TrEMBL record, chain A:
N-terminal signal peptide: none
Superkingdom field: Bacteria
Function: The electron transfer flavoprotein serves as a specific electron acceptor for other dehydrogenases. It transfers the electrons to the main respiratory chain via ETF-ubiquinone oxidoreductase (ETF dehydrogenase).
Listed SMART domains: ETF
Record-given protein name: Electron transfer flavoprotein subunit beta/FixA family protein
Species this chain originates from: Nocardioides eburneiflavus
UniProtKB/TrEMBL annotation, chain B:
A Pfam family reported for this protein in Swiss-Prot or TrEMBL: ETF_alpha
Keywords, alphabetical: FAD, Flavoprotein
Protein name per UniProt: Electron transfer flavoprotein subunit alpha/FixB family protein
Membrane-traversing stretches: none
Organism: Nocardioides eburneiflavus
Positions of FAD binding: 214, 239-240, 253-257, 270-277, 291
Cofactor(s) essential for the protein: FAD
Family: Belongs to the ETF alpha-subunit/FixB family.
GO molecular function: electron transfer activity; flavin adenine dinucleotide binding
Length: 257, 326
């Protein structure tokens, strides 16, 4: 039986304009809305498949404020069977702090008789982009770690993970217990079904306090890059702009044939 | 002393992003009063590679060799780099912000229990040592302090342009065979397949790319766009929404997780211009955005724009091209 733990983070949906909080310590999501990091959505999908293949259950974990429960419910709606919420202000936690908190959950779950032998995380979060929580977690636990893979399977206590490397498609094989960080692109995260959503709404969620005081990120402040001055030349509106478009194509010399 | 992890291509050359990291290291070294720069790499470099690194100002090249380095393991590379660092007394270890660079430096950070900054674009000052790095996919910047030693960071791709140094470094080659504990070899590559045939090749080298996003509306909504691409002898590039919805294959995706293109002209139609898409098309020489929303980021960042429904604009453009060709 394989019972993976999969870690997700509530991040600002950065597909629209990014606005910073007044103190410059974070991204303000009040206008853009929030989502789960793309890499982690794929990690959730892989965790659910691995658990189903191995006859176990996948537990989803997040460290975040009260609203991050939404990310846990989304993962429950697509097949995770348990959820743990470390209630904390994620802004106050650096990558080493987050890794320590995940390790504390892994140890406590093992002590409680519901151990995890595989932890899946996103390769990097869409907001902080630190590229290191999974690796630091592996050192906390003393487990091996592979990074940036897009396919993961488990058979007979052995993890096979693969992804694209600089010289071709690389395959890693390593024993459980292990940590794996996932890059999007290898699997298509499934959409929640209506019964899935209903079940997720009622599913119990383990709530925890952080196990230790965070050291904090090494952040001084966030700033926005200076906006590049808009120099766009509007050629017109609707189909009436077609002659102007073709004039431009001629000017740029891309129409010649 | 500054130590830079250099990645070597299968052809035995220093990859461009590593040469960028060395170029970045030279500015840092100069600000620090001319501290030396050493490189560390896996494998035995040939004379040409040693020459290139020396030309970039490298004093000493530490080559990690031995069975532990026959196939990639992040922990094993970190073990080797850490031994070189300790021996050479480096206070700064740098790499390029590639998957390998970020991975190996994250291992070093975990081993030494010090912070690691990914994707740095500039440094602010030396005391305290402050760097600025890309976050939120490049939409924001973070100023971060690296006051512990060793200071570890990776350099974002194209943050600086790689260029040789004004004065050559000595380029002394030192071959090292560090002991790597078995525990660091548990998670290593067991096989590498030939890279898949790169179907995005023509997209990356195209002079003109016609782009399409959610605005295309459906898989059938591409007919006019494909006709335009045909008329202009252009490639089709799409946003991630289009590939996630299965309207077009993944190898046509432009962006952070797709291809990076630099055509003479990019014509994004019905694409909002999210930062992750912009990451792949910002080096186009000219951009003609076609969008119903005049405030879409793609429109405000473009060189030219047409405000309107692509399903009306594109057929009119196609007709106009055919008319002028007679
Ligand atoms: C980790 C990560 C990696 C990512 N990597 C990539 C990547 O590599 N490439 C990528 O593209 N995205 C990527 N994304 C997704 C990205 O954030 C955006 O969601 C995506 O680019 C939006 O695609 P779109 O512009 O087609 O769709 P939308 O954002 O929905 O925009 C559609 C646009 O079309 C316009 N429109 C609608 N109808 C019409 C019409 N009939 N005529 C004209 N205009 C119309 C609208 O005004 C709007 O501007 C990534 C996201 C994450 C989190």
């Amino acid at each position: 039986m394989v019972s993976p733990l999969v870690c997700v983070k509530r991040v600002v949906d950065s597909s629209s304009e990014v606005v910073l909080t007044e103190d410059g310590q974070g991204v303000d999501g009040r206008f853009a809305g929030f989502t789960t990091s793309a890499h982690e959505e794929c990690a959730v999908e892989l965790a659910v498949r691995i658990a189903a293949d191995g006859g176990g259950g996948a537990t989803v974990l997040t460290l975040g404020d009260a609203d991050a429960v939404e990310q846990l419910r989304s993962a429950l709606a697509v097949g995770c069977t348990a959820a743990t919420h470390v209630l904390a202000d994620p802004q106050a936690f650096g990558p080493a702090d987050v890794a320590r908190e995940i390790a504390a959950v892994v140890r406590d779950h093992a002590a409680a008789g519901t151990p995890h032998d595989l932890v899946l995380l996103g390769n990097d979060a869409a907001d902080s982009g630190d590229f290191q929580v999974g690796i630091r977690l592996a050192y906390e636990l003393g487990w091996p770690v592979v990074n940036g893979v897009s396919a993961v399977s488990v058979d007979g206590g052995v993890v096979t993970a693969s992804g694209s490397g600089p010289d071709g498609h690389e395959t890693f094989r390593l024993p459980l217990p292990a940590v794996v960080t996932v890059l999007e692109g290898g699997v298509e995260p499934r959409y929640p079904t209506v019964p899935g959503r209903m079940k997720a709404r009622k599913a119990p969620i383990e709530e925890r306090e952080p196990a230790a005081e965070p050291v904090g990120p090494s952040r001084v402040r966030l700033v926005l890059p200076p906006p590049s001055p808009s120099t766009v030349q509007v050629l017109g509106e609707g189909p009436a702009a077609a002659p102007a478009v073709v004039d431009l194509l001629e000017q740029l010399g891309v129409l010649a044939r | 002393m500054i130590l830079v992890l250099v990645e070597v291509s299968p052809a035995g050359e220093a990859v461009e992003t590593s040469r960028e990291a060395i170029t970045f290291a030279r500015d840092l070294a100069a600000a620090g009063g001319g501290v030396p720069i050493d490189a560390v790499l896996v494998g035995t470099p040939d004379d040409a590679l040693v020459g290139v690194l020396a030309a970039h100002g490298v004093r000493r090249i530490h080559a990690l060799t031995g069975a532990a380095y026959d196939s990639f393991s992040g922990a094993a590379w970190a073990a080797g780099v850490e031994q070189v660092r300790a021996g050479a007394g480096s206070v700064v270890v740098m790499a390029s912000g590639t998957p390998r660079g970020n991975e190996v430096l994250a291992h070093l950070g975990a081993r030494a229990a010090v912070p690691m900054a990914a994707n740095v674009v500039s440094f602010g000052g030396l005391s305290p040592f402050t760097v600025t790095r890309q976050v939120v996919g490049g939409a924001a910047l973070e100023e971060m302090q690296l006051s512990q030693r060793p200071a570890l960071f990776t350099v974002a791709g194209h943050a600086v342009e790689a260029r040789p140094a004004d004065t050559h470094g000595a380029g002394e080659l030192v071959v090292e065979t560090p002991e790597v504990p078995d525990a660091d070899l548990v998670a290593r590559v067991v096989s590498t397949d030939e890279p898949e045939p790169d179907l995005s090749g023509t997209l990356k080298s195209a002079k003109v790319v016609v782009g399409a996003g959610r605005g295309a509306g459906s898989a059938e909504g591409f007919d006019d766009l494909l006709e335009l691409a045909d008329l202009l002898d252009a490639s089709l590039g799409v946003s991630r929404v289009v590939t996630s919805l299965g309207w077009r294959p993944h190898h046509e995706q432009v962006g952070q997780t797709g291809s990076r293109i630099s055509p003479d002209l990019y014509i994004p139609c019905g694409i909002s211009g999210a930062i992750q898409h912009w990451a792949g098309c910002s080096s186009a020489k000219a951009i003609l955005a076609i969008n119903t929303d005049p405030d879409a980021p793609m429109v405000t960042k473009a060189t030219h724009a047409v405000i309107g429904d692509l399903h009306e604009v594109i057929p009119a453009v196609n007709a106009e091209i055919r008319r002028r060709r007679g």
